[in-house]
Each structure stands twice: as structure tokens, then as C-alpha cells.
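Researcher: Let's do a round of design. I'm pasting the C-alpha cells now; please hold your answer until I've finished.
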């Protein structure tokens, strides 16, 4: 391993400084330990193996079909070879026998026997045998990913201060690695608004994105990663190490202390107008206590992370306890609970969720929940039961058309009726709102606003759907910008519709905490900005500096600018002029 010093400038995704050791995770590199299982679980392990093999064969057959259609016969042969490997009867019998005799997990036995088979092939002078090893490993990583549910095995452990470096991680991976006490992430894929980034930010784990990180960063090297600037130093000098240690000390507790010292919540503009500020939460995070103490509302609680934590829908009691805890902690400040916003894109491979080729345009959010009405009603029942503090609000994600609102409200009414009949208390005045994340919803916001108690604009998804640019795909991240006038136009339309219908409007996408966008939102008349806790202090400082009467013209100017660059230039000019004024 080279110990040459090298500096890389990546894209900052989640702020904070970490110093540690690189743990490079290559695709298909599963860290599986040889863990024993009780005799009573042996049959379950064998059934899981059979299931994983079946799923792999189905996937490979599908890929073969696509290959034949798009590329032709010769490429399909690769899949023929892999299909033979996946279904190899003798090999699978060997794995099953060893699971029975050694009482080990299916994943660990399968992994071990695959390694035994491929190691001699990998070193063979024969090109054909070396290629065979590659094919076997490709099949094995599919089987293993089905077996262990996601790409991180829960049985592993990491050395203290590990910084995980890899191609791409799902939110589940981030959570699993956090449980193993990983301190930060360097990734080559997944933009600033990807779900992985959101979860990392809510957990306050630094993340930097840089192309080719798995190739550039040697496994086991010492690393400094600054998630605020995007700087990565591989094998830093002792002086740099001490300097960054000092900087990190200043940063961590400082954020909590800075929230504590904020003069007034909600913050006021220069001309004395209050601007609501809220926090986006999902899992318990380090800033929760101070947020609750300062009575900062929870503008978005992403409940789907409850699903991700256990890879299944949590039961009513688990949900009830979670929602009640957060409602009690923040009361009387409002807590907006969003119903499960799940889809194949949030779960990634391995979850028991139908594969979709185009998941962002597929079965997610309220679409999935209305089809799984029992899951939806169970969640609503838990939310209603937890609403006795009268500070819970229910929010529906990914609304596209009015009928979805009507159907969801019908289900909510049915749950309320049942609770009443059962004599279980809940807040009868509980507010139900929706998220505007789809252009169709933004353009019909006037109709939707008449049916709901509040609206919150999710600029992360609104951007990807307006710009036709996947929020997690770096190749199109020059197009994925919430500052595009088309996106801002839809935001302005939605705010106007809410004002006209006298309902409160908030923004809960990441743009809400962007200091460049805040004057614009004040100008539009947005009531509340809800953001990752780490952005609250800077956002409040910005609000304090803006004069609400002077930013109205900014909205017209930015929204009518014809291009992304023109919109950004206008906002930057405004910020520069206003900084000069100080
Ligand atoms: C959004 O789309 O802006 C949003 C807040 O929802 P999520 O990021 O969870 O999709
Ligand atoms: Mg969204």
C-alpha cells in the first residue's frame, strides 16, 4: 500500500470533519463472518439459500432476454454460463450439507465454498479458467446480496474511526455502517440530494463524493475527510492531522452550542417579520435534544426510515411508540409525520420490493400506500393514537392528482371512525397536508390546496421531475438544480395557490436550507423552511439579514430568468449587493 500524500477535492455531501482509516468496499465485496446458527435455524438458512438462488436465476434470465434483444446472441452466452453456475446442483448440495453439518449461516458457507472454488482458477495461466472465476464471482455476489438483504452484513465489525469508501451506498448501507460505528463515507455515486445523502446528513455523518474514489484511495490508508469543503487528504502529514483534529473539535459540539445561542426562534427578518424554521428528521440524531429544547418544529419526519431499519413494515405498536416519543419530546411544537415514502429507489437491491426499471417514475410514496391500504391504515392509526398531544400533523408524499388526496382522506376518516368506536383517544382536529413534489401537483396546487390543511414543497423530487434528471445520477447533476427557473416557477405557483386558499406553505426539500435561496422564499411569502439540523444556524443568520419588503422583486426577476445560469447569477448578484450593504 502506498503511503504517498495526496489531496483530492470532492463534492461536499454531508458536513463535518473526520480523521480515520479508509475501508474500501469494492462491489460484491461482502464482509461475511463465519457465524454459527442454532440447530433450529438450519432449515431456515437452507430455505433462504434456495430463495436467493431462485431470485438470482430469475434476474439472470431477464438479463439474458434483454441482452439477446439489444445486443445479440454472443453476449447472451455470458448469461448462459452464469445461469449454469447459479443452478449448479452439485455445488448447492455441497453448500446445504455444510450448513447442516457445521451449523453456519447460508451466506458464510456459500461465500467460503465460492472462494475455495475460485481461488485456484484466479491464478491459472489459462485465460478461460480466469474468466470462469470472474463469472462465478459475479453470480455469487448476486446470490449473497439476496441472502444478506443488503450489501452490508450486520455480523461484521469495523475498526474504530473507519471511513467507508465505496461506489454507491443505499440508506440501509449508511445505517448499517453507522451501527458498526463508521465515522464517514466517501462515495463515487449518489448526489447531494440522494437518499443516502439525506440520511447521512440527518445522522450528521460526513460524506464526500468523488469519482474513482475506490481506485484512488488505498484500502487501509490514513485519511482526513472534510465534508464541509469536500477536501480529502490521503496519508496526511502529522501537522495536517493535528490541525484537522483541532478543527473537528471546534465543529461538533459547536453546532449544538450555536443552536443554543440562536437569539430568537422563529427568526425574524431585518424588518421584523417572523419566518418559521423547522427540522427534517428521520432517525434519532445528536441535535434532537437541543432542537426540542429550542422548540424548533419538526417540519418533516421521514417515517420510511423505520421500515429501512428493520427491512419490513413496523407494526402498529412500534410505530405508535416512535411517534408518541417524538410528539412528546417536541410538544407543543408541531411535528409533521410523513406517511411512508417508499419505493424501489429508496430501498435499492436486496429489499423485498418489486424491481422497477424506472423507480423514480414508478410505484412509490402515496401510490404504493394507497395500493397497500392496510399498511397505510395501520400507520395512520399509530399516528392518530400518538396525536393526543395535539401537535402531530399527517403529511402525504408524492401526490400527483386530487383522487389520491381524496382516497387517502377517506382511509384516514375510516381509521378515525374505528378509533372512536373503540374508545381510543386521538386529536379530532389533526391536520392533513400534502407534499408538492410532482410538476402536475404544483400546476394544480390551487385545486389541491382546497382539500388539505397545509402544503409542503419537496424541492428534491420537484427538481428531478421538472428537470427530468435523476437526483442520484452524477452524470446529469449539471441539470439537476433546484435553482432552475422552471423549478422556482413551480414553487412560486404553489406558494401563490396556498396564499389564495389561506393555508400555510412550507418548503422541506434541501433547498430550504440553502442561504442563496432563502431571500427568494422570504420574497415569495413561504411560512416555514424545514431543513437538515446542521443548516439551521446559517439559515437563521441569513433570515435575520433579509428585508422582506426588498426581496419581492427578486422573485419576479429570478423566476422569469430564462436559464439556470441566469437565475443563479441574479441570486448571487443580490447576495453580493446585500453583503456590501452590511
Ligand atoms: C423532497 O423530495 O424534497 C423531500 C423532502 O422528500 P425526500 O427527499 O424524502 O424524497
Ligand atoms: Mg421527496
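Researcher: That's everything. Go ahead.
Model: Designed sequence:
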Amino acid at each position: 500500500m502506498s503511503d504517498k500524500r495526496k489531496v483530492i477535492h470532492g463534492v461536499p455531501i454531508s458536513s463535518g470533519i473526520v480523521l480515520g482509516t479508509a475501508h474500501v468496499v469494492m462491489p460484491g465485496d461482502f464482509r461475511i463472518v463465519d457465524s454459527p446458527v442454532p440447530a433450529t435455524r438450519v432449515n431456515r438458512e437452507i430455505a433462504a439459500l434456495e430463495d436467493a438462488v431462485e431470485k438470482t436465476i430469475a434476474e439472470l434470465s431477464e438479463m439474458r432476454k434483454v441482452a439477446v434483444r439489444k445486443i445479440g446472441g454472443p453476449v447472451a452466452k455470458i448469461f448462459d454460463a452464469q445461469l449454469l453456475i447459479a443452478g449448479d446442483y452439485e455445488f448447492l448440495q455441497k453448500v446445504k450439507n455444510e450448513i447442516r453439518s457445521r451449523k453456519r449461516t447460508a451466506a458464510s458457507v456459500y461465500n467460503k465454498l465460492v472462494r475455495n472454488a475460485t481461488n485456484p482458477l484466479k491464478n491459472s495461466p489459462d485465460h478461460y479458467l480466469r474468466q470462469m472465476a470472474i463469472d462465478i464471482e459475479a453470480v455469487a455476489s448476486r446470490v449473497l446480496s439476496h441472502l444478506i438483504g443488503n450489501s452490508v452484513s450486520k455480523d461484521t465489525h469495523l475498526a474504530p474511526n473507519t471511513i467507508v469508501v465505496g461506489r454507491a451506498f443505499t440508506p440501509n448501507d449508511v445505517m448499517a455502517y453507522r451501527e458498526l460505528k463508521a465515522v464517514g463515507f466517501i462515495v463515487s455515486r449518489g448526489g447531494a440530494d440522494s437518499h443516502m445523502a439525506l440520511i447521512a446528513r440527518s445522522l450528521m455523518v460526513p460524506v464526500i463524493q468523488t469519482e474513482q474514489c475506490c481506485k484512488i484511495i488505498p484500502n487501509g490508508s490514513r485519511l482526513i475527510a472534510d465534508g464541509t469543503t469536500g477536501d480529502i487528504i490521503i496519508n496526511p502529514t502529522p501537522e495536517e492531522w493535528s490541525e484537522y483534529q483541532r478543527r473537528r473539535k471546534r465543529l461538533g459540539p459547536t453546532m449544538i452550542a450555536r443552536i443554543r445561542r440562536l437569539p430568537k426562534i422563529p427568526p425574524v427578518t431585518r424588518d421584523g417579520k417572523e419566518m418559521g424554521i423547522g427540522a427534517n428528521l428521520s432517525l434519532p440524531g445528536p441535535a434532537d435534544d437541543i432542537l426540542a429544547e429550542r422548540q424548533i418544529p419538526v417540519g418533516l419526519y421521514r417515517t420510511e426510515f423505520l421500515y429501512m431499519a428493520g427491512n419490513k413494515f413496523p407494526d402498529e405498536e412500534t410505530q405508535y411508540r416512535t411517534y408518541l416519543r417524538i410528539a412528546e419530546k417536541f410538544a407543543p411544537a408541531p411535528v409533521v409525520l410523513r406517511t411512508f415514502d417508499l419505493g424501489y429507489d429508496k430501498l435499492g437491491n436486496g429489499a423485498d420490493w418489486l424491481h422497477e426499471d424506472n423507480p423514480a417514475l414508478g410505484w412509490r410514496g402515496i401510490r404504493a400506500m394507497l395500493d397497500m391500504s392496510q399498511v397505510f391504515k395501520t400507520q395512520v392509526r399509530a399516528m392518530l393514537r400518538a396525536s393526543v398531544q395535539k401537535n402531530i400533523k399527517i403529511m402525504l408524499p408524492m401526490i400527483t392528482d386530487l383522487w389520491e388526496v381524496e382516497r387517502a382522506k377517506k382511509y384516514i376518516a375510516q381509521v378515525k371512525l374505528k378509533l372512536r368506536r373503540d374508545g381510543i383517544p386521538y386529536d379530532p382536529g389533526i391536520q392533513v397536508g400534502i407534499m408538492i413534489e410532482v410538476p402536475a401537483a404544483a400546476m394544480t396546487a390551487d385545486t389541491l390546496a382546497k382539500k388539505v390543511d397545509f402544503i409542503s414543497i419537496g424541492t428534491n423530487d420537484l427538481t428531478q421531475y421538472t428537470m427530468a434528471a435523476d437526483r442520484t445520477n452524477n452524470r446529469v447533476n449539471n441539470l439537476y438544480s433546484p435553482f432552475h427557473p422552471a423549478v422556482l416557477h413551480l414553487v412560486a405557483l404553489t406558494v401563490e395557490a396556498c396564499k389564495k386558499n389561506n393555508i400555510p406553505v412550507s418548503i422541506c426539500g434541501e433547498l430550504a436550507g440553502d442561504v442563496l435561496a432563502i431571500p427568494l422564499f422570504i420574497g415569495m411569502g413561504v411560512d416555514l423552511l424545514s431543513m437538515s439540523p446542521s443548516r439551521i444556524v446559517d439559515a437563521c443568520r441569513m433570515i435575520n439579514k433579509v428585508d422582506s419588503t426588498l426581496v419581492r422583486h427578486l422573485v419576479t426577476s429570478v423566476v422569469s430568468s430564462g436559464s439556470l445560469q441566469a437565475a443563479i447569477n441574479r441570486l448571487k448578484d443580490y447576495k453580493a449587493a446585500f453583503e456590501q450593504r452590511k
